[in-house]
Amino acid sequence: MRFLLPLLLVLTMDANAQLLTGVWGGIRTQNAGGCFPEYSTELHIIHMQNNSFMGNVYSYDHERFTKINFTGKYNPLTHRIVIIESAVLQYNVPDSCIPCIKTYELTFSKNGLSDILQGEWRGHEMGNNNNCQPGKISLSRLAKSNFPIDVYQNDTLANMQKKLKLQNREKDVVQTISIDTAFIKIELYDNAEIDDDTVSVFLNNTLLLYKKRLTGKPLVLDVNVFANTEYELMMYAENLGRIPPNTSLMVITAGRKRYQLHLSSSEQKSAVVKFKYVPL
User: Fold this and answer.
1) Domain 4-141 is of which CATH architecture?
2) Mean pLDDT value of segment 48-53
3) DSSP per-residue string spanning 50-110
4) Spelled out in words, what is the top-level CATH class assigned to the domain 155-277?
């Protein structure tokens, strides 16, 4: 029993942390002296590993907005969250305003069926160390985002994608799947004789696998998906192997459901699978 309890604790902590993945929206206020007394805010937690996470936050007011990426840490024992913004990705603000790089200290709680993030924030102006006027923030989980959802991609793949020159190929939609879970596992195998088929894989035009050889051992992708957001997984053939076309077996595990799909890509077409997470 003494070995089982630590394992159960780890599993519980990981499950609690995964509850944060998704879209959060609400209001961020700012003390007197800031550009605006309040901002509409949308927080996207797009990737989690253990109790650490990363994503983007949008602050907006009509046509004025900022998009800033962040990293964060969740303590499942205290339900406390610290989010630290790092780089301003996009912004359109009045000339008299400077985007603020913020740190949030939040608490996760439930109010009936609603998930809530509440707390305070502080920060400094982009490009200098001048303090921004601090404020408070209150967010709840949203069913759908008002902004495009980014797909998590590590820095190595991001740099690779900047240098890619893909051929313009027709997309062959093999199947459209409705799933009821935010976490899916995708496995790719060679479909027939192992003949050195090599593929690159994109999710919503974001490179996730680059020039990987298909074998009897699966290429595995663990993907967090957002509710009511359409996803398009594309298999781009880097070569056709010794026996054209480039074929693969894709196995998608989504909760208790499992899908097996046979894909075929060529120099003219790329196989595509579409899916959407629709909460029950």
Assistant:
1) Beta Barrel (2.40)
2) 88
3) TTEEEEEEEEEETTEEEEEEEEEEEETTTTEEEEEEEEEEEEE--TT---EEEEEEEEEEE
4) mainly beta
